[in-house]
Specification:
CATH topology of the largest domain: Jelly Rolls
Number of strands: 12
Distance between the termini: 18 Å
Structural class: alpha+beta
Order of helices and strands: HEEEEEEEEEHHEEEH
Strand content: 25-35%
Helix content: 10-25%
CATH architecture of the largest domain: Sandwich
Number of helices: 4
Number of domains: 2
Shape: globular
Radius of gyration: 23 Å
């Protein structure tokens, strides 16, 4: 009986293995809490060691005029930022150049439109997930409020998938996709609600077995 109880506990422990993946979108006024090991890219200076950027244009409030007047800084941004579009180049790739990979990436996404496209890439450059403006906010029109059209977006990958994040690709045919404060990180896993429920179910099984054992002993006496 003791082995049976231990088996149930072991099953519950396996079921409680943290696993999650998905997209979260919050107001630019409440940026995510970056883990201590995050690498934050603000475009205010040279890229951190181990990163490369191909395409797009790095702008700031003093240069986002004239030909770049459609590429305004995203709300919540300060200093320089990355812009993609017809004037700045319709595609840009930001990626790690070494063996480092990540489990999560966050960014400040400005001028959210349905034709904005963000590809999350693995370490080989393959697309893990493609996101458009429709995936991160319900308001994707150019006349939307600043809160709706400027969001902090986070994509977290399932740590049990065997895949890791290696970089990002930004696409926009129009000057209406601006990016800032890109953070690559290794998040701390938190069990999903379904995982917690499975663990609780395992504990109930343990209690049930103990009760049956106690009842059997009483009947034997």
């Amino acid at each position: 009986m003791r082995k049976t109880i231990l088996g149930v506990v072991a099953l519950a422990a396996v079921s409680a293995t943290p696993a999650y993946a998905g997209v979260t979108s919050t107001s630019y006024l409440t940026p995510p809490s970056y883990s201590p090991d995050s690498t934050l890219i603000t475009f205010d200076s040279a890229l951190p060691t181990g990163f490369s950027l191909n395409g797009g244009q790095i702008l700031n409030t003093s240069t986002s005029t004239g030909a770049y007047q459609g590429s305004l800084a995203p709300a919540g941004s300060s200093g320089s930022y990355l812009a993609v579009g017809a004037t700045s180049g319709t595609q840009a790739v930001l990626k790690g150049t070494g063996n480092t990979s990540w489990g999560s990436v966050s960014l400040l996404w400005g001028s959210i439109d349905s034709f904005n496209k963000l590809d999350v890439l693995d370490t080989l450059g393959n697309v893990i997930k493609s996101l458009t403006g429709n995936d991160v906010t319900s308001n994707v029109t150019a006349t939307g409020t600043a809160t709706d059209n400027n969001r902090y977006v986070t994509y977290t990958i399932d740590p049990n998938s065997g895949t890791r994040i290696g970089g990002l690709r930004f696409n926009s045919p129009t000057d209406a996709f601006e990016i800032d404060n890109v953070a690559f990180s290794q998040p701390t896993s938190v069990p999903e609600p379904s995982t917690i429920a499975l663990f609780a179910l395992g504990l109930l099984g343990v209690f049930a077995l103990r009760r049956r054992t106690a009842s059997a002993k009483s009947f034997a006496l």
